[in-house]
Amino acid sequence: MQPELFIKMVLDAWNAQIKKTDDLFNQLSDEQLEQEVSPGRNRGVYLLGHLAAIHDKMFVLLNLGEEIYPAMYQVFVASPDKSGAKFPPINEVKLYWKKVNSSLAEKISKLSTDEWFQRHTSVSEEDFKKEPHRNKLNIIISRTNHLAFHLGQLILLKPRNQE
Fold first, then answer.
1. Mean pLDDT, residues 97-111 taken together
2. Which own/partner contact pairs does 144-149 have at CB distance under 8 Å and 24+ positions apart?
3. What is the C-alpha to C-alpha distance for residues 87 and 46, in angstroms, rounded to an integer?
């Protein structure tokens, strides 16, 4: 019962952050997403693509298959915003976000309790024996924190009267 409860708590937190972020992206206009979250910082569209690209990498980390849009990692993670990299149109980046997260949700819902506590693919079997906390569930915890961090930045794109 305890492992199932812990998994539920982690996935509930993950799903709550996905929903909050999804709701915000649905509220923000393309013009708002083109804005920097703060002077000299990333633009909303970059953070949208960044989050989607990071979540896309989770398929491989969790051993759930291949990335859906592997080329987006170079644009939204390996390259900084305003690097000159060509971004797809915002509506395509929004679709990318939705497709990655819906496909990821479908696949993670099928993982068993035992699978959640298995190693993720970026840790060796030898290291996992010494550090069993480097498991698939821990990927969800760290990605939930990453998502919440960027959600905090993205909220700054909303006008004060929209908060």
1. 98
2. 144/10, 144/13, 144/14, 144/17, 146/51, 146/54, 147/14, 147/17, 147/18, 147/21, 147/51, 148/17
3. 8
Following CA atoms 154, 155, 160, 163 in sequence, which dihedral angle do they give, to the nearest 10 degrees? 150
pLDDT score recorded for residue 85: 83
- Cα separation, 103 vs 89, in Å, equals 21
| Distance between CA atoms of residues 159 and 153, nearest Å | 13
Tens digit of pLDDT for each residue in 48-83?
999 999 999 999 999 999 999 999 999 999 999 988
The torsion angles phi and psi of 135, rounded to 5 degrees, stand at: -110, 180
